[in-house]
Amino acid sequence: MSVGVVGAGLLGLTTAYRLAKDGVPVRVYEASERVGGLAGTSPLDGIDVDRYYHAVTLTDQRVIDLATELGLGDAIRWRPLGVGFFHDGALASMTTPRELLRFPGLSAADRARLVAFVARCRLISDQAKLDNEPIEPWTRRLSGDGLWERLWRPLLDSKFDGRFDDLPATYLWSRMRRTAGTRDRSGREVMGWIRGGHQALADALCDAIRANGGEVLTGSPVRSILSTEGRAQGVVVADGFRPHDWVVSTLLRPHLSPMLGPDLKEALPSDQCRYLGVVCVVARVRRSVSPYYALNITDRSVPLTSIVETTHVVDPEHVGGHLLYVPRYVSPDSPELARPSSEIAREYLAQVQRVFPNFDPKRDVMASQVARARFAEPIHRAGVADRMPDVIAAPGLAVASAAHVYPDIVHAQSIIGVADRLVEDLRPRLDAARFQELAA
User: Fold this and answer.
1) Angle between the 170-180 and 135-143 helix axes, to the nearest 10 degrees?
2) How confident is the model at residue 270 (pLDDT cuts 50, 70, 90)?
3) For the segment 88-103, what is each residue's pLDDT rounded down to a tens digit?
């Protein structure tokens, strides 16, 4: 029972690895020349750096276990770090619980509500009641109007390009729980980095797939998924048709839909997500710019989502300097996605200088590049969580992507969780088909 996997990001590679270990003949098709997808690296002035920023938290047990299984457990570097906000034209540290209580511009009552809100999110174990509730009324009710206007509204405005009215309350709930996973027992923020980045994990998965008899084909874009009478039969690539008993797509729906014929399109439920794109300047700089790993931008006079200096976790010697990531999340139809890279780099780095006046792009930047993706993150809307489609989309076709991490947010831990659920759903179908073959 052969399986063809479309996409060699962490989701596709983890799925293929699990299947190959089970003895299933598996072949992965990747359009790019390198595996890893959005979690991979790209060369910056001759040095491989993460295309987008990634880290591991203390509670990312799936990532840690997979890295250990692949021989990378000793390659994880853990470091204490700082997290802050740029708020009302000033820096505000949010690294410790005590600093949370000193957040600027909030009344004493609002600070108490902030602490209570964070604690409440950690105590909620079942998010089902939050799925249908829009984020604004829920947050206002739990944390008050002042906290909403001063903190949550500008934070969401920054992250979601001004559109967050259709978000479910689950987003903040999930984000607060994720943030709790970065703290050790003393309350310090701690994050980890796999030496070589998530690319090292992707490359190790690729090697393990091949060691277990599978194939990983890079530079092999899938043109279409061929079907007969509503059943997927295999994939069409540049040199022809490749039959498979099952096809697994790990692509987001906007990328998958053009590959499907009318019968498979009709079999799939409608896509309930909207999407965010991202534009991100990556700069290698001579010295540390920010005292924080991540600086959230809630001062909306600065049109950025955050400023992330990953070399608070990443070894600076590994990348020959310090790394700054300056992202801006945008709507997929934003003109920002089509602007010249030189303009974007100049403007975004000038905004970094506004936040950190001692930073001089002309003096401090050794190299920079712009990464962008039109469809980077699926957005689940309030009221549609109960219509999350099953990964088994049609006979012979499984569809799983970053959209299936809900109610979690997108990161390696949640992506690997989707891969594990996909394999568990696919296993009995493969076993049943094997049994029928043997019986025949």
Assistant:
1) 60
2) confident
3) 899 988 877 677 667 7
Beta-ladder partners of 86: 91, 297
d(CA 31, CA 37): 10
**Alpha-carbon torsion 9, 15, 21, 23, what sign?**
negative
DSSP track, 348-415: HHHHHHHHSTT--HHHHEEEEEEEEEEEEEEEEPTT-GGGPPPSEEETTEEE--GGGGTTSPSSHHHH
Q: What's the length of the chain?
A: 440
- Residue 243 carries which DSSP code? E
Give the separation between CA 17 and CA 214, rounded to whole angstroms.
Answer: 8
Nearest to 66 by CA among 14, 118, 11: 14
- DSSP letters, 269-321, are PPP-EEEEEEEEEEEEESS---SSSEEEE--TTS--SEEEEGGGTS-HHHHTS
User: Identity (one letter) of the amino acid at 269?
Assistant: P
136: which DSSP letter? H
Which residues, at least 6 apart from 188, have a Cβ–Cβ distance to it below 8 Å?
Answer: 80, 95, 96
Question: Cα separation of 170 and 167, whole Å?
Answer: 8
Handedness of CA 120, 121, 123, 124 (dihedral sign): positive
Query: Whole-model pTM above 0.90?
Result: yes
Nearest by Cα to 76 from 177, 195, 167: 195
Give the residues across from 28 on adjacent strands.
5, 216
**pLDDT tens readout for residues 335-368:** 999 999 999 999 999 999 999 999 999 999 999 9
Structure-block tokens of residue 226: 């061929």
Q: How far apart are CA 345 and CA 95, in angstroms?
A: 29
The residue behind tokens 């990953």 is 310
For residues 218 and 8, give the distance between their C-alpha atoms in angstroms, rounded to a whole number.
8
Contact 30, 216 (CB under 8 A): yes
CA atoms of 340 and 320, how far apart (whole Å) = 26
